[in-house]
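[audit] Reproducing an earlier prediction to check determinism. Same input, same settings, fresh worker. If the tokens differ from the archived copy the diff job will pick it up downstream; this log only records the rerun itself.
[audit] input (852 residues):
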Amino acid sequence: MRRVAIWMVLAAAAMGGRASAQIVGGDRFSRSVKPTSTINRLMPEGAESVAVPEYFSVAERALAQVRAGQYRRAIYTVHGQPGAEAKVALARGRAHAALGEFDAAMAALDGAEGVDVLLERSRVLAGVGRIGEAAEAAGRAVAAGPEDLRARFEVGRVAELRGDLAGARAAYAWFVRPERNFVELWPKQQDRLVGSGEEAVALGRALHRHATLEGKYRDNAGLNNVILSIFVRAYDVIDKGNPAAHVAAAEYLAGHDDPEQAGAELKLALTVNPRMPEALERLGLLFVDGFNFEGAEAVVVSLRELDPKSIRAELLNARLLLRQRRANLAGPVLRDVLTRQPGNVEAMGLLAAVHALLLEEDRAKAVLAEVDKIAPDNAAAYFEVAEQLGAMRQYPRAEAMYKVAIERAPWWNQPRNSLGLLYTQSGDETAARAVLEEARVLDPFNLRATNYLRLLDRLDGMARVTSEHFEVRFDAKKDPIIGPMMLEYMEAVHADLSAIFEHTPAVKTLIEVFPTHAQFSVRTTGTPWIGTVGASTGRVIAMVAPRDSADTLGAYNWAQVLRHEYAHTVTLSATENRIPHWMTEGLAVYAEQAPLQWAWVPLLYRSVNKGELFTMDRLTWGFVRPKKPTDRTLAYAQSFWMCRYLVDTYGKEAMLRLLAAFKAGRNEAQAFTEVVGRTPEQFHGEFVRWAKREVSKWGYDAASVARYDELRGRGEKLIETKDFPAAVEVWEQIRSLRPVDPLPRQRLAGLYLTAAVNDKLKARENLAALHAVEIKDNRYAKRLTRLSAELSDPAAAVRYAREATWINPYDLGAHKLLLEQAEKAGDAALAEIQRKRITTLELLEKAATEGL
């Protein structure tokens, strides 16, 4: 059952992207797991043993079973075999170690000798945190086999675990010694240099670590291909399907920010051994990094089923909880790990991150001080803290930790790479370029760093217009009118949005408009696809050009989108990026000051009446990890509604106090209890009751549906017979019966414009209701412009004409209409602006027509 679950999440996983950190909740992320039954623990796995040649010895058959993940079967296979035989000891030791049975593993290995046995001892000891004993075993392995590549690598690996970088460098330098430099020899003599898949894996990993610690990637453009070719030869030629080689390749690729290829390698490893702890752990890390929480949870459960005391599982679980912004729950998990392995530096780094996220700075410093006692030059723990703070957009605090990691490990590319990405997200492109250039020198093959440097090149080439509060960057050739239009709009609405939240960001907001959707996506996530047109990372708002093109998502109401995104900027600034995701989304929709979207109505009605609204602890994941096609839409609609309910019921002051509470580090439960006097569950219960009352007025109950159908039939027939006055009466009844339905508004707008009725004010009222929720089509806005002009309302005519250009800024007719209304209203400044924009658009159209 568990293998099926892992493959389901593997098949569904999206390995290639990252998003900004979010929140998840619910008891399915609990650490409690149903224990595997005793009988299942004692019986061999699977109906059939892995197939092996007839000439295999009993021990070789058992080792093949271990390689396939049939650990319990392997133990049964060698039952009664002499423990002094190295292969028997290896089979028993590896099988017991995979199952978390440390004492049994060590007992099996204690009974035999040889390099293979010593290496397995080192791996088992290191796995349970006994690093000193592991180092001793690795040293004995080298003494027993001075030319053994695996032993040489193991010495370096364990030295790194101890924080002994000098010892690690010395161990890895053996692989590139002048008399036998494996980097130089491999391309021509690879068929002679290694005798087994295990040796090839050790060689590839050793060369990678040597290149990393000594900065050799900068001097050898071909080194990347050499190392990858070693892993490929290991699993493709020397030892077909070797799962350890696939895992080593995955680890290497993930370290170069290529999660898609890393995931492909892990899939191949798990095809051979679906229960391989190292492959499962690496897969879980990819899932956590890619926000695939269901997949990560499945991996945690699988690791626990394999080994109920698995440290790997608990560390992965802690990372999962941190990714879900549940630092308060990650803390106990990590403290439990440290009770069992007091010197586990990874756990200590994550625990320091927990304290930092909870604003417990003294505790964070105390944990890092303990790390420094164990390993004075340690950079990894500081990097862990920086990564978690960066994921929560705690930019200045993350920056400080990244700098410590860089100072302590100048050879390590990842802290520089992450710091460069942080600078990019926070809008400091100059600092980002400097750091990313350094990162690229250290590792020319990192995909995300390369993508971001290309992005910075594009940003440098953009045109810029600035004002007091904003800077807009845009492509002057493809989108010459966008920058000035956006700047003009944003300064006009800035005071309004700042007043809503009683906060103004301390620094100028950067708005970047990209000519293609792929470039926008790289700006937002570091990868070339994200399914939206606008995004805020705090100070920076990125948008796709609102232009009909094969490279964009088409024209859209960029003004409404900008208003939404700037609301994010303001609420993130007001809370120092600590606001729950669902609330920043809900408040951003609230700040749009637009009516409930028509498309949301049936979804909300059904969800309210069927009890399908998200609970508060799951609401954010409707945005981030939707399980149904409607989840993301429902998350937006519900978040908006909850924020509206909050303000309408408890007042704007309650909303502002909640923002202040989040800034002070309160979690949702603390903030709502302090400010609203309700737990989140109680608040949600109140909201649901309110929502039921709201939807009861919408005319979707059975009696209203029957009445609606009857009236609609009558109204449509009256239109067909051209009895327009009578039709108006019927459609007004329908509008009152179902106030959130666009159809009666559409019918009434047309009816009021007929000569038989001729009520232009009523027509405008209905057209305005339709226009208020329209973000893709400017026909309503243009008709409202003309209607307002006919009603001698020049201010309204100008307003609607301007909004028509917002919905489609490349509609030349809309701009000409705005010019006409500006001239009629006597607005000479606006008229002059429009003449220039019309000239620009005409030149663009001419160039497009002539194929320039």
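[audit] rerun output stored. Observation attached for the diff report: The two ends are 60 Å apart (CA to CA).
[audit] end
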